[in-house]
Design a protein that fits this description.
CATH topology: Undecaprenyl pyrophosphate synthetase
Bound molecules: 3-methylbut-3-enyl trihydrogen diphosphate, magnesium ion
Distance between the termini: 49 Å
Strand content: 5-15%
CATH class: Alpha Beta
Helix content: 25-40%
Order of helices and strands: EHHEHEHEHHEEH
Number of strands: 6
Number of domains: 1
């Protein structure tokens, strides 16, 4: 390579890792539809590319030493979309599940599906449960939020507590009944696609998360963009209400 073509390296290229301040990163993977429309393609095309980006970013986050990653794949509100789009997203999800089966022996990923899974077919739920069981010993925790809504999650936690006979509910009780139980609260939540809102993602868990918003559309999101978010995160002062 010529000197003036110096390749932009990533944290992973340089062998750098995050420290304990950044254990859990979450992504609101937004902008697939617009990415496709800008190419004169149907929105579904964006979802396929978005799925590929998700795999690439997952591998990258693991490489730089992040231990927990949560991705927003499908919200409780996304059922409002045209049936054809919903069907395609579900097909992509199915393919992903099959990929998990093929790859789970060789990789370090512990997969967890977070959300109200009751809407999925029994056979799909059985597959999800099997993946969760068989990857339970792996070190890199990946929470995939499907049919996930932060409000639904909190209401569900309360209902479970009622069924357990609780008369009074503490914050700890709710935390212990969230779908994401076992993962620490996210340190950093990244939203691509230019919108500055949470869209019902990790409402309880995000109380003290740092947010990073970027206009980059999810299918274009790269390892360099992860590095950029990480470096902004490290400049933040987390005070948790203190001084
Ligand atoms: C995010 O991309 C993926 C899902 C919500 C499933 P969008 O499909 O919301 O893309 P935009 O925001 O319309 O561009
Ligand atoms: C949030 O994106 C949900 C996911 C990324 C899965 P949306 O595209 O659904 O959010 P809104 O409608 O712009 O708030
Ligand atoms: Mg969107």
């Amino acid at each position: 390579m010529l000197w003036f073509q110096k390749k932009k390296t990533t944290m992973a290229d340089r062998g750098e890792k995050v420290d304990d301040r950044l254990q859990h990163i979450a992504f609101i993977m937004d902008g697939n539809g617009r990415w496709a429309r800008r190419r004169g393609m149907p929105r579904e095309f964006g979802h396929s590319h978005g799925a590929a980006t998700f795999k690439k970013i997952g591998r990258y986050c693991e490489k730089i030493g992040i231990r927990f990653m949560t991705v927003y794949a499908f919200s409780t509100e996304n059922w409002k979309r045209p049936q054809k789009e919903v069907d395609t997203i579900m097909e992509i999800f199915d393919e992903y599940i099959e990929d998990c089966f093929r790859e789970m022996e060789d990789d370090n990923v512990r997969v967890r599906f977070v959300g109200n899974l009751a809407v999925f077919s029994e056979s799909l739920r059985a597959k999800m449960a099997k993946i969760e069981r068989e990857t339970a010993h792996k070190p890199f925790m990946l929470n995939i939020a499907v049919n996930y809504g932060g409000r639904e999650e909190i209401a569900n936690a309360c209902n479970e507590l009622i069924r357990e006979g609780k008369q009074e509910i503490t914050e700890e009780d709710i935390s212990a009944h969230l779908y994401t139980v076992g993962s620490p609260m996210p340190d950093l939540i990244v939203r691509t696609g230019g919108e500055i809102r949470s869209s019902n993602f990790l409402l309880w868990q995000s109380a003290y998360s740092e947010y990073y918003f970027t206009d980059i559309l999810w299918p274009d999101f790269s390892a360099h963009d992860v590095d950029q978010a990480v470096s902004v995160f490290y400049k933040r002062k987390r005070r948790y209400g203190g001084v």
